[in-house]
Amino acid sequence: MKSISAVINARKGSTRVENKLLRTFSNSSLIEIALSKLNKMDFFENRFLAVAENEFISLLENYENISLLQRDKNAVKKGVNPLTKTFEHYLEINSNFVFVFNPCLPCLSINSIKKGFDYFQRTNYKSYTAVVKTGDWIFNHDGTPLTNTDPNNATTNKNISFYKACHAFHIINIERFREEKILWDFTIDDPHLIEIDSSEAVDVDTLEEFYLAELLYKNHANKI
């Protein structure tokens, strides 16, 4: 077994949905839903909540299997912060890999995470990320088509052969991050893709997505 610990990163400074992790979500909150799942994941070597703000730290008293991973205040400032500052707390983890579990996807199931964990243990790639299949038409900044280039295809279901990152989880080599200051190099299989079901991949980035995810979560809570 390769050594791997799980981490939930959290901060208050969401730029698009104010206080999204702590605001009421289906009689709970996004962060508490994620912590409840993580608390049950005994297949990881260690489990951490990586935070700097007291509102999150106080929640840990309800989750006996999750430890605090203290973050620097500068790592949780609003906006996009330097990679090495944002994730420097990974270097404090005494495992070879870190499984980064995103609390903004409330429909992500423990079963899917366990499948990702098992797949990681059976394989040997530098890094991993969760994806979903898509038939979306993607264009670059100047309008050049990147996915559908067939003028006879006017649908999004004729060639569902592409993948898009859904940010449900990532798996990072800690020593590589320490030495190279990167998580992956965006070549083939770095990150290696782990497909999950699209029904679990609703990521809350906007207020509209917050309400949509809440409806889906209420309908699927017994499955996750």
Topology summary:
Layout: E1 4-9, H1 30-38, E2 47-51, H2 54-57, E3 67-70, H3 83-86, E4 97-101, H4 110-122, E5 128-134, E6 162-173, H5 174-180, E7 192-195, H6 207-220
Parallel strand pairs: 1-2, 1-4, 2-3, 5-7
Antiparallel strand pairs: 4-6, 5-6
Structural class: alpha/beta
- Distance between the terminal alpha carbons, to the nearest Å? 26 Å
How are strands sequenced across the largest beta sheet?
3-2-1-4-6-5-7
Q: Overall mean pLDDT score?
A: 93
Task: Output the radius of gyration.
Answer: 18 Å
| H and E order | EHEHEHEHEEHEH
What portion of residues belong to β-strands? Answer: 15-25%
Number of helical segments?
6
**Residue ranges: pLDDT <50 for 5 or more in a row?**
none
Q: How many beta strands in the DSSP annotation?
A: 7
Shape: globular
Helix content: 10-25%
Instruction: Give the biggest beta sheet.
Output: 7 strands, mixed
Describe the structure.
- By secondary structure, this protein is α/β, with parallel strands linked by helices.
- Helices cover 23% and strands 19% of the residues.
- The protein has six helices and seven strands; from the N terminus they run E-H-E-H-E-H-E-H-E-E-H-E-H.
- The chain has helices spanning 30-38, 54-57, 83-86, 110-122, 174-180, 207-220; strands spanning 4-9, 47-51, 67-70, 97-101, 128-134, 162-173, 192-195.
- Strands 3-2-1-4-6-5-7 form a seven-stranded mixed beta sheet.
- Helix 1 (30-38) links the parallel strand 1 and strand 2 (47-51).
- The model has no long low-confidence stretch (mean pLDDT 93).
